[in-house]
Amino acid sequence: MTASTTKNKGKRLLFSLIACLFWLGVWELASLAVGKELLLPSPRRTAVRLYTLAGTSSFWISAGTSLLRIAVGFLSGVAAGTLFAVLTAASRFLDSLLSPLGTVVRATPVASFILLALVWIQASNVPSFISFLMVTPIVWSALKTAILNTDRQLLEAAKVYRLGRLKTVRAVFLPSVLPTYTASLLTSLGLAWKSGIAAEVLCHPRQSIGIELYESKIYLETADLFAWTATVVLLSVGMEALFALLLKRTLAKGERA
């Protein structure tokens, strides 16, 4: 790692810290202006409540259960989106047949899918299904577009040199689609969290962040509501950072291989 790279990372970290402190200050001032913890608890009150909740086993069970549900939905959506992208990029018939499905999923409100899913699926499985449903069209659309936009001259060169399908995929398609594909994965991960937690709030599965958010709102425990919301944000950011790191290391190993 060069000195300039280290310096740039240090600057980004400093700017992020300044931005965080700035918005915490705005939050604190807004809380003081409102003057009622019931309406807008202060950052300190929210942090204290989060610390208290984190000391209970039920907090970690709820957070872990929600994390597992959303992870299952996200990974299933990535697998399905990747499969549909490859199939529709390879066949015009399949593209014409399946593309309306992706359009309908993208255009339909999440709340409608949640309510419909409650009719057919057990409440505890709805968050995973909704996360799956939101992730699939994002990965599908991004990867299909990347495959179709692969440089035709490189593909022709691969044919001339008779690389074969496997080597063509590795030498031509993968370098072309990976930037778009990885970006779609990170984008869809954030959406999986939002939609999954929204599904939990509406379908009330036991031991979940969603039911804790719902009950905090019902009983006017605003500090708890903010604390659980902060938990969602922290888990989402942490999951995205960890996933981005895993992708980076995986890609680096692939390049060395």
User: Over the alpha carbons, how many angstroms does the gyration radius reach?
Assistant: 22 Å
* Sheet with the most strands, sense and barrel status: none
Give the full name of the CATH homologous superfamily of the largest domain: MetI-like
**Could you say which structural class the secondary elements and strand pairing correspond to?**
mainly alpha
CATH T-level topology of the largest domain: MetI-like fold
Q: What gap, in angstroms, lies between the N and C termini?
A: 21 Å
Q: What's the β-strand tally?
A: 0
Strand share of the residues? under 5%
Layout: helices, strands, pairs:
Blueprint: H1 3-34, H2 43-54, H3 57-90, H4 92-107, H5 110-120, H6 126-148, H7 152-160, H8 164-203, H9 209-218, H10 222-256
Helix pairs in contact: 2-10, 3-4, 3-6, 3-8, 4-6, 5-6, 5-8, 6-8, 8-9, 8-10, 9-10
List the keywords.
2 domains; 257 residues; 0% strand; mainly alpha; 10 helices
Quick structural gist:
The chain has ten helices and no strands. It has 257 residues and is mostly helical.
Describe the structure.
Helix content is about 85%, strand content about 0%. The chain has about 260 residues and is mainly alpha-helical. It folds into 2 domains: about 1-35; about 40-255, MetI-like fold. Helix 5 packs across helix 8, helix 6 runs antiparallel to helix 8 (about 165-205) and helix 8 packs antiparallel against helix 10 (about 220-255). The longest helix is centred in the last third of the chain and has 40 residues, at about 165-205. The chain is globular and about 70 Å long.
